[in-house]
């Protein structure tokens, strides 16, 4: 595995790969890798000649109450996991390498951001859009892979690529789960033993709602109330949201129709968990 830290070298290496007629699959991350990230690599390896992963904790997507310095980092462990997973090129730039001077422009995302987690994180997706625009130019991949655990991010990234005509395909990858259904996340380690027993109720409530829809219940208000009751009954966490939108547009809907997302977020004592399912009706 090649580890690269500068933009110039990364661009030169990627140019030589493209000139050789090889395809590039790209997995952008902020590090602290877990099985969800490695599953993205697995999918990228199936469809591309070369797999590139970036590890960069992007300061632009942290809000005023979010501590950039406390974000978990384990670069040595990440390098080992990436190499074992089969990553060919690992791009690990510093903040000064990615942002050497004050930017002369701002990227502002105006759609798909004021719902779900984005509602409470103003400016977050502006930072995501900025760093991904830079990374897409640096790596020039054929395909980029994103986990559907953060389905809102997938929807926003898809809109960026479409609006700016990036010549690449966004590949959404399904959520990786524990045996009991809990979505894998680095945050899961912060759950108490009792909360860990309760946490699978998030996915169970979504699957029960899906069964309810299959039985003919299409009113979103009824489905939201059903999920909320399930979460209140089976967890001691505080419900942050239970919401249903069209997908990937993330527009409010009164009845289930077409492709939609049912998304939930629950705050436990030291961890906020999110989960979702995408429904085709």
TrEMBL record:
Higher taxonomy:
Bacteria, Bacillati, Bacillota, Bacilli, Bacillales
Q: Extract the GO molecular function terms from the UniProt entry.
A: ATP binding; pantoate-beta-alanine ligase activity
PANTHER family per record: CYTIDYLATE KINASE/PANTOATE-BETA-ALANINE LIGASE, PANTOATE--BETA-ALANINE LIGASE
- Which family is this sequence assigned to? Belongs to the pantothenate synthetase family.
Signal sequence coordinates:
none
Active site positions, chain numbering: 37
Report the NCBIfam families cross-referenced here: cyt_tran_rel, panC
Q: Which positions are annotated as binding (R)-pantoate?
A: 61, 153
Q: Where does it sit, as one GO cellular component term? A: cytosol
Keywords, ordered alphabetically: ATP-binding, Cytoplasm, Ligase, Nucleotide-binding, Pantothenate biosynthesis
Sites binding beta-alanine sit at 61
E.C. code: 6.3.2.1
Q: Subunit notes for this chain?
A: Homodimer.
* UniProt function note: Catalyzes the condensation of pantoate with beta-alanine in an ATP-dependent reaction via a pantoyl-adenylate intermediate.
Reaction(s) catalysed by this chain's protein: (R)-pantoate + beta-alanine + ATP = (R)-pantothenate + AMP + diphosphate + H(+)
Pathway note: Cofactor biosynthesis; (R)-pantothenate biosynthesis; (R)-pantothenate from (R)-pantoate and beta-alanine: step 1/1
Its main localization is cytoplasm
Q: InterPro entries recorded for this chain?
A: Cyt_trans-like, Pantoate_ligase, Pantoate_ligase_C, Rossmann-like_a/b/a_fold
Q: Does the keyword Cell membrane apply?
A: no
User: Could you tell me which Gene3D superfamilies the record lists for this protein?
Assistant: HUPs, Pantoate-beta-alanine ligase, C-terminal domain
Instruction: Provide the binding site for ATP.
Output: 30-37, 147-150, 176, 184-187
Miscellaneous section? The reaction proceeds by a bi uni uni bi ping pong mechanism.
- State the organism of origin: Heyndrickxia ginsengihumi
Q: What is this protein called?
A: Pantothenate synthetase
One GO term (biological process): pantothenate biosynthetic process
Where can this protein be found?
Cytoplasm
């Amino acid at each position: 595995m090649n580890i690269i830290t500068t933009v110039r070298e990364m661009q030169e290496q990627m140019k030589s790969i493209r000139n050789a007629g090889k395809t590039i699959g790209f997995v952008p991350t902020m590090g602290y890798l877990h099985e969800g990230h490695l599953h993205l690599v697995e999918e990228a390896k199936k469809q591309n000649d070369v797999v590139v992963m970036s590890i960069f904790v992007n300061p632009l997507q942290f809000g005023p109450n979010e501590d950039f310095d406390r974000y978990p980092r384990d670069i040595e462990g990440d390098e080992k996991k990436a190499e074992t997973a089969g990553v060919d090129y690992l791009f690990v730039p510093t903040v000064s390498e990615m942002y050497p001077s004050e930017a002369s422009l701002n990227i502002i995302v105006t759609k798909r951001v004021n719902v779900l987690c984005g509602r409470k994180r103003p400016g977050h997706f502006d930072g995501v859009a900025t760093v991904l625009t830079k990374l897409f130019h640096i790596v020039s991949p054929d395909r980029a892979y994103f986990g559907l655990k953060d389905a809102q991010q997938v929807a926003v990234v898809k809109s960026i690529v479409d609006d700016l005509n990036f010549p690449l395909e966004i590949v959404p990858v399904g959520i990786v789960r524990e045996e009991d259904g809990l979505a894998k996340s680095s945050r899961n380690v912060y759950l108490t033993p009792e909360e860990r027993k309760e946490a699978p109720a998030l996915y169970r409530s979504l699957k029960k709602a899906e069964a309810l829809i299959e039985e003919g219940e299409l009113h979103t208000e009824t489905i939201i109330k059903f999920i909320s009751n399930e979460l209140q009954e089976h967890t001691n966490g505080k419900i942050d949201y239970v919401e249903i939108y069209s997908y990937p547009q993330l527009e409010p809907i009164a009845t289930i129709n077409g492709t939609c997302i049912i998304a939930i977020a629950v705050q436990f004592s030291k961890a906020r968990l999110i989960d979702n399912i995408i429904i085709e009706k």
